[in-house]
């Protein structure tokens, strides 16, 4: 698990430090395959983490890298507040532009990673009792994850309308909502609610999370 965390963070740093330099050096790359492979590698690493962290035994094998995972997951979950700027379809303005295609794929992959990070935060909250106390401190004192989750519930970035006005929901990909599923809580939204419950009802959370008037006013919004 620490290796997967390291791989994901390493690629995230590469995207912010190296990728812009590559674009400056070669504004219109002729071959996008290698760039796609790097982007997908991060998505695959996070997908594997999401699956293995479903089991508490896996969560317990993490060392200090779990704090890095918390920071990473919070960062990507926060990206969802800019979800309207993320294209949900493969609409490339200029089909002949490799650069345009790269940026579109990058946005799609980062959106998927952000959604998976919601599940990761939920699992970390659920298994917090089996992790170092510093994890709870990071989730509550440093990042105020309950507030983050409340904001996500309000915004619901996992729901969209397509160009025809039909409701769509994200579960690994965007799909039309069946009439029989209208009004139901989807998988990702359920993860948010579970994560919020685990953090607020954990008896060990009290020393790290003071329920101020501002926090209370935000939490009440979802009741």
Automatic annotation (TrEMBL):
Q: Name one GO cellular component term.
A: centriolar satellite
BP terms from Gene Ontology? inner dynein arm assembly; motile cilium assembly; outer dynein arm assembly
**Top-level taxon in the UniProt lineage:** Eukaryota
Against InterPro entries, the record matches this protein to: ZMYND10
Signal peptide feature range: none
The record's PANTHER family line, in alphabetical order, gives: ZINC FINGER MYND DOMAIN CONTAINING PROTEIN 10 (PTHR13244), ZINC FINGER MYND DOMAIN-CONTAINING PROTEIN 10 (PTHR13244:SF7)
Q: What name is this protein filed under?
A: Zinc finger MYND domain-containing protein 10
What species was this sequence derived from? Habropoda laboriosa
């Amino acid at each position: 698990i620490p290796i997967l965390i390291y791989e994901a963070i390493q690629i995230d740093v590469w995207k912010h430090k190296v990728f812009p330099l590559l674009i400056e050096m070669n504004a219109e790359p002729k071959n996008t395959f290698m760039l796609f492979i790097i982007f997908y590698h991060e998505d695959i690493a996070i997908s594997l983490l999401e699956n293995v962290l479903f089991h508490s035994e896996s969560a317990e094998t993490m060392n200090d890298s779990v704090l890095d995972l918390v920071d990473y997951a919070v960062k990507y979950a926060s990206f969802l507040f800019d979800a309207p700027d993320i294209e949900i379809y493969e609409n490339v303005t200029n089909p002949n532009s490799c650069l345009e295609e790269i940026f579109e794929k990058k946005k799609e992959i980062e959106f998927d990673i952000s959604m998976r990070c919601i599940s990761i935060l939920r699992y970390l909250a659920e298994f917090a009792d089996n992790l170092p106390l510093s994890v709870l401190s990071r989730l509550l004192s440093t990042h105020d994850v309950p507030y983050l989750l409340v904001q996500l519930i309000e915004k619901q970035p996992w729901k969209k309308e397509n160009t025809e006005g039909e409701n769509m929901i994200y579960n690994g990909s965007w799909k039309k909502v069946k009439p029989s599923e209208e009004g139901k809580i989807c998988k990702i939204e359920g993860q948010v609610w579970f994560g919020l419950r685990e953090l607020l009802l954990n008896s060990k959370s009290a020393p790290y999370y003071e329920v101020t008037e501002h926090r209370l006013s935000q939490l009440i919004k979802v009741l």
